[in-house]
Amino acid sequence: MPPPKAAKGEYIETDTGNKISRRSQIHGTQHIILGGKTVIQAEAVIRGDLFRTTTLPTDANTASAPAAPNPSTPSVAITVGRYSYISKSAILRPPSRLHRGIHSFYPLKIGDHVFVGEGAVVEAASLGNHVHVGKGAAVGSMAIIKDYAYVLDGAVVPPGMVVPSWCIVGGRPARIVGEVGEGYGVEGAEGGMARERYRVVGRP
Amino acid sequence: MSRPFPYTYISCPCADTPVPDPAKKRRSRESPQKSPQKQPPERANPDQDKKLSTKEEQQGEDEDEEQTFDPRSPRSNFSLYPPEQLLYCEECHQIKCPRCITEEIVSWYCPSCLFETPSSMVRSDGNRCGRNCFNCPVCTAPLAVSTIENAAGNGPQQGPWVLSCGYCLWTTLDIGIKFDKPTNIRSQLQKMTDSTPPAALNRSRQASRTFGDLKHPLSSYASIDEQSNARERDGEQAAPKEDLAAPPMGTDARFAALKAFYRTQIAETSNSPNDHLSSEFGFSSPGALNRLMSLYTSSSRLSGLYGGSKKPKSKPPVMREALTASEGLKIAPENNETDMIARLQSPECGWDGMASIDQRGTQSPDARFVDDLLPLPVLLRTKRAKRCKSCKHILVKPESKPQSTRFRIRLIALSYIPLPTLRPLAPSPSSTLPAMAATSDLNSLPPLRPIHVLLTLRNHMFDPVRITLATPPVTPGRVATKVTVLSPQFEIGANSDVWDEALQGASAPVTSDSRSAALRGVPEAGKVWDKGRNWTTVVLEVVPGTLPGSSAEGGDGNPNTEINDEDVLAVAASRQDEDVLEIPVFVHMDWDADAQLDQQNVGKGSKPDDKVTRELAYWMVLGVGRIQPSL
Prior knowledge:
The complex is a heterodimer. Chain A is mostly beta strands. Chain A has a single domain (2-55, 71-200), classed as Hexapeptide repeat proteins (UDP N-Acetylglucosamine Acyltransferase, domain 1, 3 Solenoid), CATH 2.160.10.10. Chain A has two helices and 23 strands. In chain A, the strands form four sheets. In chain A, strands 1-2-5-8-13-16-19-22-23 form a nine-stranded mixed beta sheet. Chain A has a six-stranded parallel beta sheet with strand order 3-6-9-14-17-20, with no helix packed on it. In chain A, strand 22 and strand 23 (175-179) form a beta hairpin. The two termini of chain A are 21 Å apart. Chain B has 17 helices and 23 strands. Chain B: Residues 1-76, 222-249 are annotated as: Disordered.
């Protein structure tokens, strides 16, 4: 099965329609759930290996030595919804937190129709549906980005920030700078291009 | 938010027709009641205005017939909107932009905790979240509540709590504030910073003020080393300087005290008992304003205007000002300025120790140093309903719950007008479509080389639409780009059910677009490029003009721009973004709509089978790209 596909081109297309670049770096695949029709472009890094270990290790250096002590219990590190798009050299990392002196990871949930721009670093606790994360933006640990929010290019969303729906955030640190229009997210318009984006990927 | 090429903007027609100004109407309606002696001139004015405005309108219409839309004119900045920001009024049958709507607040919520604040609480909370949401006073990032003890490692006992910024690592420990509980931090903070909580205005200042010394007005003026070793001593030092009796008040408390003081002053000095200002209205009521105006002005004309009472005022009772600290008086401390300058100069303070203008703007007026900055409760945001300004028809009504993204009513323009999308037609069919490659190309279009642009219009209505496109043959402005729409008249299918198409036969699946486009070959005049269930693509042939002063100019034959280099430079500097290629396109659409509730339809001939032909026309602007300066 793999050899004919390898000849086909850059993208591996899974049964559920995910298009994953062969040049992307995906770690800990068993801890990643892709909703289908997700696009992962080249050089994107997805750290599924940073998941919450059920038996909490005593020291806080799980980040440097990620290991799966009990792979029998599948814990999900990253969930990505349908028609989401991870651009070139973007990084998805599950968020982490120091809780009661123990450093542990939490799952990263990404909704449907999400766009993560080129070189963006996402460490959010959740990205809602139709979220746009601009090029070179950084979303800090445990941030919550609600549906239809728009993170401008180069913005740095501070850790723990909550971005309400329909809001545009930008700057370093990111602040709410405006709101998207009511028509945002309509199929085919701004914020509703996810299907089109998906369709175009991998076409000769 | 500027958009990457290619983009499409739609011009709201309101830019041409002056919006009925509600303020003007109100003024002309109310003024006769208030000042009858001024009636004649006031009444004359609206008539004149109306004449003027109708004249202007006529002129505007006349001009509009002839003139084409210029995306570069300064006025068009205010009428061009991305399609998704526009609304559509079903009563007026018109596109509505953010300028032709009014807004009403549906609910208030905190953007951080997403809790709704009841409107009765909004004012007393000062438009800010009353829970645990704070912004960093240094960098505006949200603050997190965290414990100090647990950071050390162990222990079930929860230590004192602080607010810490995850972005700039500021904590409330920097200003010496710790909290006993992790909840209700705002009231804890208020107790610390104010001697009286401002919510209870008349309560005596016996509230616990464990940390009140911290925000002593003088605390910032003492030298920094004193502050660092013994903060409590600061209060003792400062106390004898100012007022022995009363403890110093925070800003909010002082404001409350002053407000109460002036209220009693007004009550005492008002001579007429049935004066409408006294107690039933607040100090800030217009009645009180009238009275103050008549107090301070001796002119009978003004008093007649504002007060309405004709009787001459006997000597008005004198209001005194606040005299004691309990009334809200604050005496500027003796060595205020010199102490501050000394502190500014001290090596401990330096540039980093001073609060920036931005930081001070949100703080109390006394805050000069970083140490004075207090955590800011998060400002509330609103969910707003939108109404048409001219017919008051409601256009957008979101659900009031902050978490919900749904709308009860949402009349967006995109469900009525066709959604335009623009795409360059790649010269070689092999490199179609990857948007990345195309955009880099669009940022430097070679002049005088024809390119083809695909304009797709997607219909969201359930009726098929006939479209007529028109462009000026040459774009307005100094860069003359030739534009030709190869098939200006076409039809777009109805936005019927997706299943209809599927059942009719999947002979023309929408997804085969790019491949079939590659096979299609050359664009032809008078032929639609591609067509789908509810969309149609046409080709625009664009010959980018040459930029004035560019090397390619000689070939173009623009003799009148032969000027020396200095002028060119000056002009180029003054006209920014002249190289942006924007094409104005006039869209005229008409369709047969069901004549349901609108009997006064827009004056179009009605068809026998209960159908009305409706039409809509507007300008849109296609941002194609940037023209290269030279070949």
